[in-house]
């Protein structure tokens, strides 16, 4: 592996967003060659800040083992955004190099259309049965350093979402209390099939940094955070206008042909009328 100067390493570590802009200006092959020489802990944040289509091209060019190492070091949502634009056969080879459980989660997320709640949800968010004691839930939160914000999700015996409980409520409750006794059932879950745009302005975001995501049967599938919502909304136009979506140019070209053909009809010389047509006009 090529050793980089301390200045280069510091730039990648402290300015991953700026480094991403630099790599986007390079040819994909040159950008991938640079990423290949960088440890995954440094290259993963840089790749996450790149436009998804540009990052996907680098992933396709990188050696498969190196690409898998970078992808698994990225945040789940960032990695999913990149994998969504990786070519089909290459994607399958890449997922085969990743831990089976994580690869399964990626495959499930990639089944959702881009711009939907399901495509941006965090599937690693835990849920707790309503019979769980608050002390047990609190121990789990402290042990895992729960990053979901201020809430945990509560389910019934069938795994269906019934509400959430704030960390403050856990701290104030009796250790032997059940989550069913302190759950807030007023916060409604998000549908995994809903679009990000449709749920961007709901009132629940004002008080909760993370909202539950459920499937058709109401079972908890994960959670969507405010930060991921913002990221997903910001990437929608970038994905739509990227070179990966050549169909856009196809539509523009077809529109051009349609307009041109209509103009040609307007300026084309009109054939002389026959005597019969002249008689029809004069009537």
> Mind telling me the C-alpha Rg?
26 Å
Query: Which quaternary structure do these chains form?
Result: single chain
Percentage of residues in strands: 5-15%
The stretches of 5 or more residues where confidence is low (pLDDT under 50) are 238-254, 276-283
CATH architecture of the largest domain: Roll
Major sheet details: 3 strands, mixed
Distance between the termini: 90 Å
| Tally of alpha and pi helices | 17
CATH superfamily of the largest domain: CBS-domain
Structural class of the secondary elements? mainly alpha
Global mean pLDDT: 82
CATH fold field value of the largest domain: CBS-domain
Give the CATH level 1 class of the largest domain: Alpha Beta
The sequence of SSEs as H and E is HHHHHHHHHHEHEEHHEHEEHHH
Q: Estimate nothing, just give the exact number of structural domains.
A: 2
Would you write up a description of this structure?
With 283 residues, the protein is mostly helical. It has two domains: 6-111, MgtE N-terminal fold (Alpha Horseshoe), CATH 1.25.60.10; 127-234, Roll (CBS-domain), CATH 3.10.580. It has helices spanning 6-14, 16-25, 28-36, 40-49, 52-61, 64-73, 76-83, 88-96, 100-110, 117-120, 134-144, 167-172, 179-182, 196-199, 226-240, 247-267, 275-282; strands at 127-129, 151-155, 161-166, 190-191, 210-214, 220-225. It has a three-stranded mixed beta sheet with strand order 1-2-3. Strands 4-5-6 form a three-stranded mixed beta sheet. Helix 11 (134-144) links the parallel strand 1 and strand 2. Helix 3 crosses helix 5 and helix 4 crosses helix 6. The radius of gyration is 26 Å and the shape is elongated. The relative contact order is 0.09.
């Amino acid at each position: 592996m090529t050793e980089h100067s301390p200045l280069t390493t510091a730039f990648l570590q402290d300015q991953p967003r700026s480094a991403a802009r630099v790599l986007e200006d390079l040819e994909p092959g040159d950008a991938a060659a640079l990423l290949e020489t960088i440890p995954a802990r440094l290259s993963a944040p840089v790749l996450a800040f790149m436009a998804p289509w540009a990052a996907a091209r680098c992933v396709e060019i990188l050696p498969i083992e190196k690409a898998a190492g970078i992808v698994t070091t990225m945040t789940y949502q960032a990695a999913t955004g990149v994998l969504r634009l990786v070519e089909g056969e290459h994607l399958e080879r890449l997922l085969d190099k990743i831990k089976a459980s994580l690869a399964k989660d990626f495959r499930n997320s990639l089944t959702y259309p881009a711009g939907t709640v399901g495509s941006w949800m965090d599937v690693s968010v835990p849920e707790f049965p309503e019979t769980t004691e608050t002390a047990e839930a609190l121990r789990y939160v402290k042990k895992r350093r729960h990053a979901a914000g201020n809430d945990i999700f509560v389910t019934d015996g069938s795994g269906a979402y019934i509400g959430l409980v704030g960390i403050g409520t856990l701290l104030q409750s009796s250790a032997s209390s059940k989550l069913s006794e302190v759950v807030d059932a007023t916060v409604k879950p998000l549908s995994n099939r809903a679009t990000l745009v449709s749920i961007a302005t709901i009132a629940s975001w004002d008080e909760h940094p993370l909202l539950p995501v459920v499937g058709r049967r109401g079972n908890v599938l994960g959670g969507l955070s405010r930060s991921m919502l913002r990221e997903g909304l910001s990437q929608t136009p970038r994905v739509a206008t990227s070179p990966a979506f050549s169909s856009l140019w196809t539509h523009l070209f077809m529109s051009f042909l349609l307009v041109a053909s209509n103009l040609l009809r307007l300026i084309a010389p009109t054939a002389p009328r026959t005597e019969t047509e002249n008689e029809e006009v004069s009537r």
